Structure formats: C-alpha cells, structure tokens
Amino acid sequence: MPIDPSVAIGASLGETTFEWMPSDVLLYHLALGAGANPTSEVELRYATEPDLQVLPTFGVVAPNFKRTKPPAVSYPGVEIDLAKVLHGQQEITVHRPLPVRATATISTRISDVYDKGKAAVIVQEATAVDSAGEPLYTTRSSIFARGEGGFGGSRGPSASVELPGRAPDFVLETPTLPQQALLYRLCGDRNPLHSDPAFAAAAGFPRPILHGLCTYGIVCKAVVDGVLGGDVSQVSGFATRFAGVVYPGETLRSQVWQEDKRLLVTCSVDDRPVLTDTVLSLW
C-alpha cells in the first residue's frame, strides 16, 4: 500500500542542519526574475551584496538548496511515484527578517494525511532555528498525490480565504521567462517535471511546467515590490494554495486587496487560476 496513514501521521522526518550564504540568496532571487531592471535600487537590494535583503520565501527552499538529485516521495508510511505529485499548499511564517547568511537546523514531521478520493494530500510541518537555538521560521506544506486516495482517511479541512466584495486595490502583471524553470531548478529542485519534455508528457503535461515554489516566490516578490515598496522586513508570512500550473514564459496577473495586517492575493494566467487562498501577512 503506497500510503499507510497509521504510520505516516505524526512521523518525524528528522533534523537537517544546513547553511546559506549571500551567494545562495542572490541565486534564489535571480531565479525568481530579480534584477530585470538592473539600475533599480529596489531590484539591486535583491541582486547585489550591498544592502542585500532576503525574501521570506527563501526559507522554504533553504534546507534543500544544494540538492542536486531529483526528490523522492519516500517517508514513513508513504511511497509515491514522483510523476504523480504536485504541490498543494505552502506557508511560511518568519519570526524575524531572514539573515543573509546563517547556519540553521530544521525539524520536520508529517502532521496529517488526507484522503480526497482520487488523490491523497500529505501535510508536513517544520521549524527552523539558528545556531543559537533561536527560532527563524516555521513552514507548513502539502503535496497532492494523484491516484493515491481511496484509503478511507479523513478528507481534511476545506476552508478558503474570503475576498472583499470590491475591486482589487492593486493589479500586478509579472512576466516569466521561457527558461525560468531551468534557472529555478538550480535552487535545489531537480524534479524532471520542470525540465524534461518526455517526463512532463508522461505526467500528462504538454511541456515542462514551472515549479510551484517558483510561482510562490515570484508572486511574493511582486506583492512586496508593488505594494510595500520592496521592503521585505514588513512581511511576517506568506501562504498560498496552488490552483493550477504555470508554463515558463507565461505572464502572472496578481490581484491584491489590503485588509488590516494582511494582503489578500489571487493570481492567474489569463483566466486560469494559479494561486488562490493567498495571504501575505504583515507585522
């Protein structure tokens, strides 16, 4: 049986100690499209060492940033073919602005497994601390495994973020590059779904798709730049649900509503939803 929730739920995935340097942060930002205007002071805070700041979404990829092999979905009670897997949801809460260099330790566990009938959802939670044991950030993520449901588990929650009944306060257009996925894979995700046309075709896609976490980072940056003047220190968290795929070269359209200490976001390509239930939280 590919999924055994009695074994999976609550299982520890262990601790990992890792480090990052300014060069890692720069590569991550460039892989999201930073520096498109190389004379912009805002862009240079992402793309050069002087006054470098770190997008909070970097924390999600930092533990695996130097990985060079395709990931495997092999956990206690879970064995799934990589071709069946899509990112479902992603959330990060930063406890302070991320430093440009750090040594950190992250502890990860499977917090839940949901049965959606034709698919399964595996939820992971993780906490990262710095070398002094002080909290850096926490994450919560889920993967959607097609064809792996039907094992009799809970369907899980279905709550969604309610948007205001008015026009958005901001509409942001963000083009992606045709080679965006080939750049982003250098940030530690070598899943061939994003680079190998034959693998993508076997998974049911006409061509390689953009990493969900690349879209996640691009939209976070777009909102920070378009609404907050490029100041990442105002952000305490960013959460989203992945609603559809993006193909490299497409243009993302983000609609943003301001609401107290939250920015509510939806993102689409043409009329196709890409990110929903998206909230950028402010201090």
Automatic annotation (TrEMBL):
| Coiled coil start-end | none
Pfam families assigned to the protein according to its UniProt record, in alphabetical order: MaoC_dehydratas, MFE-2_hydrat-2_N
List residues of the Peroxisomal multifunctional enzyme type 2-like N-terminal domain. Answer: 18-147
* Name of the protein in question: N-terminal half of MaoC dehydratase
The lineage's top-level taxon is: Bacteria
Q: Kindly list the residue ranges recorded as spanning the membrane.
A: none
Q: Where is the MaoC-like domain?
A: 163-263
Organism equals: Kibdelosporangium persicum
